[in-house]
Specification:
Radius of gyration: 20 Å
Number of strands: 13
Strand order of the largest sheet: 3-4-2-1-5-6-7-13-8
Helix content: 25-40%
Distance between the termini: 52 Å
Shape: globular
Order of helices and strands: EHEEEHEHEHEEEEEEHEHH
Length: 252
């Protein structure tokens, strides 16, 4: 088993080291992670400048780019082998509901998935690394299950873990993504020179936290495990849009 490990908090993040330590013994581990924190980078690739890859004293490779850059470079030129599994995390904070669209943690796993490699993203739902050891133990259990009983085809799993002692975590629950209301307004301030600047506002309130969602699982002290896909086609609207587009298609 060859496992590629990445994250979005940077190669020095405690969550990355905890994930690597938890996976030891499952296979050959290679770490390729961002040089700096890239939270919120989503699936962006750096196309406007070259990227450098360096190796830290602990053997981790780090890239001056995004999480997607890290996995992309690893799979298309840096490594001389194809990993059997890509894992990302452990993230400092939750990645649930629509947050998954912005998450660099999920993006690193997604890049592996897009190359046809099974991938898992792990997040600790409370910032600050409290009970990181519990999250690492859960990550080990899920990775072990994958190595012993791989799912058919290839999969992308998004795992969110409550920040609490392992003994208090109720179960691992398979969930769907919940939903949030739109984000809060931006916070407008001024530079010392009087120029306006804007901070992205807080995330919106949760609007769907039913028991079968990731939000619902976390509320009940359970780990949420959500299979993701990235076919963005809105199939239910295809016929409606075909009818709407008849004049456009007839007169391009």
């Amino acid at each position: 088993m060859r496992i590629l490990v990445s994250n979005d908090d940077g190669y020095t993040a405690p969550g990355l080291d905890a994930l690597v330590q938890s996976l030891k013994g499952l296979g050959d581990l290679t770490v390729v992670a961002p040089e700096t924190n890239c939270s919120g980078a989503s699936n962006s690739l750096t196309l406007n400048r070259p990227l450098s890859v360096r190796q830290a004293n602990n053997g981790f490779y780090y890239v001056n780019g995004t999480p997607s850059d890290c996995v992309h470079i690893a799979l298309t030129g840096l490594l001389d082998f194809r990993p059997d599994l890509v894992v990302s995390g452990i993230n400092n904070g939750a990645n649930m509901g629509e947050d998954t669209l912005y998450s660099g943690t999920v993006a690193a796993a997604t890049e592996g998935y897009l190359f046809g490699i099974p991938a898992i993203a792990f997040s600790l739902v409370k910032k600050g690394w409290e009970h990181l050891d519990s999250a690492a133990r859960i990550a080990r259990r899920i990775a072990e299950q994958h190595t012993r009983h791989p799912l058919p085809g290839y999969t992308l799993l998004n795992v969110n873990i409550p920040a609490m002692p392992l003994a208090d975590i109720q179960e691992i629950r398979v969930t769907r993504l919940g939903k949030r209301h739109p984000s809060e307004p931006v916070v407008k301030t001024n530079t010392p020179y009087g120029e306006p600047v804007y901070w992205i506002g807080p995330v919106g309130r949760v609007s769907d936290s039913a028991a079968d969602t990731d939000f619902g699982a976390i509320e009940q002290n359970a780990v949420s495990l959500t299979p993701l896909r990235f076919d963005l086609t809105h199939y239910e609207q295809l016929d409606q849009v075909r009818d709407w587009a008849v004049p456009l298609c007839a007169n391009p």
